[in-house]
Amino acid sequence: MSQSHLVLGVPPSSWDESLSFKIHCGISEGVIRNIEPVGRYFLAHARRKLNNHSFSEDEHIQAEANAKKLEVIHDEDSEDETPELLSRDPKDWKEQDHYAILGLSKYRWEATDEQIKQAHRKKVLKHHPDKKASSGNTNDDGFFKCIQKAYEILSDPVKRRQFDSVDEAIDDTPPSAKAKGDFFEIYSPVFEREARFSNKTPVPMLGDINTIKSEVEAFYDFCRDDKRYIERKNKAERARYKKEDNIRLRKIIDQALSLDPRIQKFKQEEKAAKEAKKKEKEDAIKNAKEAAQRAAEEERLKKEQAEAEAKLKQQEEKKEKANKKKMIRNERKSIKTHLKTHNYFYPPNEPPPLDVIEMQLSELDFLFEKLSLEDLQNVRKQLDSTQDRHDANQILVKEASRLVSSGVLPMDSVKYFKSDSIDVTENREQKTTDIEEHKVIEETPKERPWEVEEISLLIKAANKFPGGSLNRISEYVADHSGLPSRTNEELIKKSKEVQKGTIALDENDVRKLQHQKKHADTRITEHPSMREATIDYDAIAASTVNGSSTSANNTNTWAPAQQAQLERALQAYPPSWKGEGDRWDKIAEAVENKTKKECKLRVKYLAEQVKAKKAAQST
Amino acid sequence: MPSATDSKKSIIGLRIGQSYSSIAIINKDGRADCIANEDGERQIPTLVAFAGEEELAGTQAKALLLSNSKNTISQFRNFIGKSFAECNSSVIKGTAQLVDKDGIPAYSVEFMNQESIFTVQEITTKYITSLRESAENFLGQPVTGVVLAIPTYFTDSQRLALKDATEKAGLRVLQLINEPTAAILTYESGIKSEEYNNNLHNDRTALILDLGSDSLDVTVMSIRSGMFTILATTHDPDLGGAAFDDLLVNHFVNEFKRKTQIDILQNKRALVKLRNAVEITKKTLSSSSTSPCSVESLADGIDFHGSINRTRFEIMSNKLFTRILDVISNTLKENNLDTQLIDEVILVGGASRIPKLQSKLRDTFNNTITVIRQDFEPDEVVAYGCAFQGDLIGDLDDQMISDSIDSSVTLVPHLSKPIGILNAENNFVVIIPGNTPLPARRIFQSSNMFDDQKKFYVPIWEGDIIVPKPSSQTDNNLENDSTLQERPNLSPVKLLAELVLTDLPEKKINELKVDITIEIDINQKCIILAKELTSNKSVEIEIQITQ
Ligand SMILES: Nc1ncnc2c1ncn2[C@@H]1O[C@H](COP(=O)(O)OP(=O)(O)OP(=O)(O)O)[C@@H](O)[C@H]1O
Ligand SMILES: [Mg+2]
């Protein structure tokens, strides 16, 4: 700080020589504030204040108290404090021998921390300025400062090592290369002495003749790249010293290496081992190479053979398959031709409606899916043998019912073949949608096809409520499937089928079921709305009747109740209905929260779904 | 320096923050360090939670903030020692219910399967007990005493209540000290006593800026020969790290809404989750230029992944920075202080790590004098100071401690104007600066101006601070700031006395040593002594305040 140096001159010329002072005015009044009661300077303030002592009184008392403490202690076995040592200037601390100051010259870098602490304590007690102050001898704390500096350096591990690294009082000349005697006796102390410079600890030791190779090597490696403290006043000198020190150390290491009896031994052992290893390695490589070649060749042959066989087999299979496919195609074609020849079972001069043709053909495709080549051949042969359209129709219906009764086909999958359905012609002029809609109306009161999901729920419900009321089971299935509930008869029938195991689900269904079950087991609680969100496996099932997880005013969403209302309305107002007004207005009236347009769209949608479902099943 | 006999003594420093607390000890090498709790955290969340039959505190309680928030208690520190009516319960964010128990604030939680009511005091005791246990686990021996930090704005009853809660937690309270004071003590403990003896009093004025989680505390402190006096202090109770969290929460709420159409502003749980996440985002932004923010299943099972860069954060925080700087300038203005009179700005509180704050401060303290310092971890420095104080007074008996900190000792007049000497070049050299607590004594060494100077003239002046007016365009002219602003001048204003020494021994220039001692006692009586050291020639005068 700038104010630490204060230079003062002489009084102005106007100063009255007879005066040694002049007082002009007092200081401005102070401000009462609170001192924060922390820190040692506050403690000193508190002590003065509590004892009502002034600064100098307090100092005197403190000094006396310290001096008393000091007298108790005297030291023996200490090194002499020469006048030269005692008169050292603390400013020259960089040149100071800190060990000598603390009386530890004979220990130097070997002095323990405890020794340093003790030595410092002793010296402090002996040379404390308070002790001198109390005997009236002021301003002579030079040596005390030297002591503090010495302790500051030696008690700090980093600073101490820096000091040790350049401690000139240590003899660090390397031993003569020609020195006679045991190698280990000569070199062990040399390396131990060097260890004090080391940055890394613990420092490995030289060891003896029995030290294993890795340790000997580790030892020399360590010495070679040991980063060492070098402390010098300036950079240039430090660099120079470091260089000198490195040269000296390298000389010691080189000399030790050349003389170390273990190194010779290791070298020979190493050479022999290397040779043996080299040979072994070469042999191993050769052997391995040969073996690998052999194995590769064998492998290649095997693979080639297998490939050839597989190819042949594949070709045969392919051919056979193609053949069979072709035959199936032919058979199907012939059957379709028959159908056409029979004017799709319509009277010969009455052209069948296009949509009926379409439905028949799609149902036929559906049927074909389930028929083997033999079945097809069989049916075709039967058809070949008749000219009557009713007979032909019977043949197909019979075949279809065979499949239905064996559970391969759902109940109602082939009703367009039935001649009675063909005879319904009264509304021929109606639009296609009406015909389809009509179909929907017709099947609902009979029996809605069982969805895979429903069956699985039924099984679940049956297990859940063994012997439970049908109502309960019905409710459960309806709740959980989101589909309209079943009549008791339907349930009983299906349950029985389930029990008998006659419900045969096709492969797809089983897969769906498994998939659905997996999801249900892991993620789904008994919560219908949540199930809705997670099961999207079956577009048909989900769209037949949509649950109500999303908002009610969404036009695409049909609650089960609404669906049921719609179905009832369609029954009440069939296309043939001749009442007053538009039948669609009546239907819309009967369905809660749905407009006429929505109802129409819905019916159309359902019809499309039925169609799509069939199409999906037949591909 | 702790000696070998101190091993039995184990004293800790404790800071209980509104959101985080820390425990500090003094190491063998005399340095302070914080200790980590069992979960490895040095910043221990100030939370208590009840889970079934278990009481949890700290890190473990914080873990329950989401899953068991209604039985988790946070932000309770500021309620201690207050009546229920005084508690502003809107401060609480979705945790246990604050209830009125006969006028005392308490929390209602479910504990051991039944509804239980715990007062804030009891909760504090539970929390401090857990800190004590953490400390004892670390030390391997009982804690023998504690020094506690308290916010400057705590009332006497709050101080008493906190002390009481700590004692109930099984700790001997040696002393309570103000948080900024503890921070300053840490900065000061690196200074060796010799430096004071060598007249390097290290007098300075510091502004301690503590930006914690919920509050901003600005304290101006004068430091005179190792003694500290608070000159001014301001407390803003809702300007802290949490205010920055709010900004980030808002930012990400909007981002989430944009991405998913889901508005979580009314979704308490989602907000708690997000708030936890943005605190980490914010901390990361102090060291990286961009930081992610991810919350698993933020709302409706949807994960949120966002990120923000530092510039964006700084722009949106600008208002907060301005508010912080306003608090500082108001504090200075109200106390007739100028930024140039602040030698150091010391950053305390976790949120002071925000880098932009430091550069904003630099802009405000746009001069060559003020140094902005954060030498120590800002959320640990307070606890360190407590530990230093504990180390200092740990051996004193309770009576001695309570006598020392009594107001009859601490409440003293402070020098209102600096006192100094006009040197040979007519420069005013301050011997005792203003704001120095009394009694005070300082010794200054002076020397001769020329060879064989037989007389020595010592004019004693009282000075005052003259702050140089910054030239008109200073504000925006950053490049030249060092040349435009100067150190405030202390000018001699009033001549108090003149002393003259005569017939001095002949000495070469600079070799005459004259010690000038100025001692001012508690009654503001001023004794001045000038003494030449080789001849012991001296003059001594006494000035009464009334003169
Ligand atoms: N690296 C960082 N960058 C930014 N903010 C941080 C950082 N580290 C901690 N913080 C914030 O600092 C605040 C905690 O600081 P601190 O522990 O000092 O507060 P406190 O003492 O508990 O609160 P108060 O002082 O209000 O009682 C939190 O808001 C935290 O998010
Ligand atoms: Mg704080």
TrEMBL record, chain A:
Domain named J: which ranges? 97-167
Q: Which Gene3D superfamilies match?
A: DnaJ domain, Homeodomain-like, Ribosome-associated complex head domain
Q: Name one GO molecular function term.
A: ribosome binding
Name the segments for region: Disordered.
70-89, 270-325
Biological processes per GO annotation: 'de novo' cotranslational protein folding; regulation of translational fidelity
Localization of this protein: Cytoplasm
Compositionally biased, Basic and acidic residues: which spans? Answer: 270-320
The record's section on SUPFAM superfamilies has: Chaperone J-domain (SSF46565), Homeodomain-like (SSF46689)
Q: Which residue intervals define the domain Myb-like in the entry?
A: 550-607
Task: Identify the main location.
Answer: cytoplasm
What Pfam families is this protein classified in? DnaJ, RAC_head, ZUO1-like_ZHD, Zuotin_N
Q: Which residues cross the membrane?
A: none
**Signal peptide limits:** none
One GO cellular component, as annotated: cytosol
Tell me the keywords, alphabetical order: Chaperone, Cytoplasm
Q: Which domain of life is it from?
A: Eukaryota
Q: Which InterPro entries match?
A: DnaJ_domain, DnaJ_domain_CS, Homeodomain-like_sf, J_dom_sf, RAC_head, RAC_head_sf, SANT/Myb, ZUO1-like_ZHD
Give the protein name, as stated in the record.
Answer: Uncharacterized protein
- The organism is Gigaspora rosea
Automatic annotation (TrEMBL), chain B:
Q: Which GO terms describe its cellular component?
A: cytosol; nucleus
Q: Which residues form the signal peptide?
A: none
Superkingdom is Eukaryota
Q: Which UniProt keywords apply?
A: ATP-binding, Nucleotide-binding, Stress response
GO MF terms here are: ATP binding; ATP-dependent protein folding chaperone
- Pfam families the UniProt entry points to: HSP70
InterPro entries listed in its UniProt record: ATPase_NBD (IPR043129), Heat_shock_70_CS (IPR018181), HSP70_peptide-bd_sf (IPR029047), Hsp_70_fam (IPR013126)
- Gene3D superfamilies in the cross-refs: 3.30.30.30, 3.30.420.40, Actin, Chain A, domain 4 (3.90.640.10), Substrate Binding Domain Of DNAk, Chain A, domain 1 (2.60.34.10)
Q: Which family does it belong to?
A: Belongs to the heat shock protein 70 family.
Q: What is the protein name for this chain?
A: Heat shock protein 70 family
